[in-house]
Amino acid sequence: MPHASGNPQSPLRVVVWSTGTVGRHAIAGVDAHPDLELVGVWTSTPAKAGQDAGELAGLGRTLGVTATTSRDELLALEPDCVVHAAMTDDRVFESIEDLTALIRDGVNVVSSGPVILVHPQGTLPDEMIEGIHAAGREGNASLHVNGIDPGFANDVLPLAVTSLSQRIDHVRVSEIADYSTYYQPVVMKDLFGFGGSLDAKPFLWEPGVLSTAWGPVVRVLAAGLGVTLDEPLVETVERRPAAQDTKTVSVDIAEGTQGSVRFTVTGTVEGVPRITLEHVTRTDATSDPDWPVPAKGDGCYRVEVTGEPSMTLELSHHGEHGDHNVSGMIVTAQRLVNAIPAVVAASPGLVSPLDLPLITGRGLVTR
């Protein structure tokens, strides 16, 4: 269906970088946005090269844009922005180099990762951060990393809630979700360790890794609230065995192997906990009833502000053609797609959520 748009200017030219779990939804999102024009698609899979973007996104129609494995071909299209949705969890520093090169070449980028770039101050060395800013100034282009988590659910949303506060004692932002339908085998098996022995120590649970991966969430909230955190951040992890054999779309989980995990990353101020990021991740929605559960459905994002007044806000979502894990990919993609005009207009360099104006679904109301 057509959409209402208030922008009389020419659409921004957009390339979507990858066609996977987030990329396919980014293609659909760019195609649906009246202020954006899809001009190119990158794929890492040679067999997908030459295929139409609409087919790769599962739209059931062609878009007249074919995928390519060539970076040079895409840059020759002179895009205003790249929506980078490729996997970065297993190649963090290589992907930072990729994104930095794109903005140095004059292309704005919105990306779902690496999540460390949501707010890298305090996590990455200052010289590395300045290197990204310098690349942006050289190419007169901006880089913004976001999504839903890390992203909107634990940066813009909780900060908006705190605008109602008279006194803030503690802010807790949580993802509470059943991951049984989340298709990402590398994340599920190698990083989280689901289906593996509880004696094993996947990389994610090594000391300091959680503070690197989700610490930026705590730090961006601290920056938004104007507080200086103690160092280091405080991590907790509790892993539990599956009570029964469980099949998920990413990994089969035998009884007694890791079936659920709960972790936190907390920022303290003079020893007092002030900001906490929490994840409660199950692969069986009925397990661990003593842990927090969503008020509705199989997954949610929860914001809890303790103070005067104390407030709780819960965000749940569900896809039209799938469950909360499908819609989780959609909201990640759309947070990036809808931010494109603001990022293109932003000052060159690395752009934080705190640097952008209000992002809305402008132009997406069906008529």
From TrEMBL:
| CDD domains xrefs | nat-AmDH_N_like (cd24146)
Start and end residues of each Dihydrodipicolinate reductase N-terminal domain: 16-84
Keyword annotations for this protein, in alphabetical order, are: NADP, Oxidoreductase
Which parts of the sequence belong to the 2,4-diaminopentanoate dehydrogenase C-terminal domain? Answer: 154-360
Pfam families linked: DAP_DH_C, DapB_N
Q: What is this protein called?
A: Diacylglycerol kinase
